[in-house]
Design brief:
- By secondary structure, this protein is α+β, with helices and mostly antiparallel strands.
- The strands form 2 sheets. It has a 4-stranded antiparallel sheet with strand order 5-6-4-7. Strands 1-2-3 form a 3-stranded antiparallel sheet.
- The longest helix is centred in the middle third of the chain and has 24 residues.
- The protein is elongated, with a radius of gyration of 26 Å.
């Protein structure tokens, strides 16, 4: 299978992946870093050469690994490079510029992490978060002996929405459902868009009534806002893991998923009446 080439995407404040600006910043760091080191070596100031080399190297490694970046980050790097190339450290400007550049770079790293684990349509956590982070959360809960539950949600009658109104309207419906789910859970819960029209929630509770209340809130809000216009509803399945359960996260998901399909069949029978 032929792999698609990654596409550069640019907005007013963020650059994703690699483009000319990204390569130019890295080039400046390498060039100015080498010149700054050579300059200090020629002045027989080997300590300064080592210190400045370490600063340029730290910024180079951090900047090269960025998934996204902002113009302010690159401007701070240019400022640092110029000040240190000409050894301008009046009022500690050279040192301050390094810490500013590094701080902006770290900020972009945190933003990148948020982009990587956030579903772009609904704003919920995404499947990658479920695969990479949730198992660690589950292990921590198991280690401290904390019970928890999982809810799997699937949208009923979503395909007819796409067929009748188009995919743009389908995206609108999914976005609204994502907002409803986010507003129906507690701060300690983790709402995730698993894929397509399927969602799941990791619930920090071992009480079945807590999970039922979340499902009821979601059902009611969808009925009040989307049912009349698009005839959609949700089917939900749940499973609660206790300290005595010897079951994996995947098995929890499969059990909740089976319960969700039972609820989906029940909903279809009720709609057919």
């Amino acid at each position: 299978m032929k792999l698609k080439k990654r596409r550069n995407v640019r907005t007013a404040s963020v650059v994703y992946y690699r483009d000319f600006r990204t390569h130019f910043v890295i080039f400046i760091l390498i060039l100015f870093g080498i010149l700054s080191i050579v300059r200090n070596i020629l002045l027989n100031d080997y300590t300064a050469a080592m210190n400045i080399g370490m600063k340029f190297f730290a910024l180079l490694v951090a900047r090269f690994g960025l998934y996204i970046t902002s113009p302010m980050t690159d401007f701070s790097i240019y400022t640092f490079s110029i000040l240190n190339l000409f050894n301008i450290n009046t009022l500690y400007l050279g040192d301050i510029s390094f810490f500013m550049a590094f701080a902006f770079t770290l900020h972009d790293m945190l933003r990148a992490r948020r982009y990587i684990f956030t579903d772009s349509l609904t704003g919920l956590l995404n499947r990658r978060y479920f695969v990479e982070i949730v198992p660690k959360v589950v292990k921590l809960k198991e280690y401290i002996g904390k019970d928890f539950g999982i809810i799997v949600i699937d949208v009923n009658n979503f395909k007819p929405v796409n067929d009748k109104f188009g995919h743009k309207t389908g995206d609108y419906v999914l976005k609204k459902i994502g907002e409803i789910i986010a507003s129906s859970v507690r701060k300690s819960d983790l709402p995730i868009r698993y894929g397509g029209d399927e969602f799941l929630i990791l619930v920090s509770s071992d009480k079945e009534e807590v999970l039922d209340e979340i499902i009821e809130r979601i059902n009611k809000k969808i009925k009040d806002t989307l049912k009349a216009s698009f005839n959609v509803s949700v089917a939900a399945g749940k499973y609660i893991k206790t300290k005595d359960d010897n079951i994996t996260l995947e098995e929890m998901f499969e059990t909740a998923d089976k319960n969700m399909y039972i609820d989906k069949r029940r909903s279809k029978r009720e709609d057919a009446r």
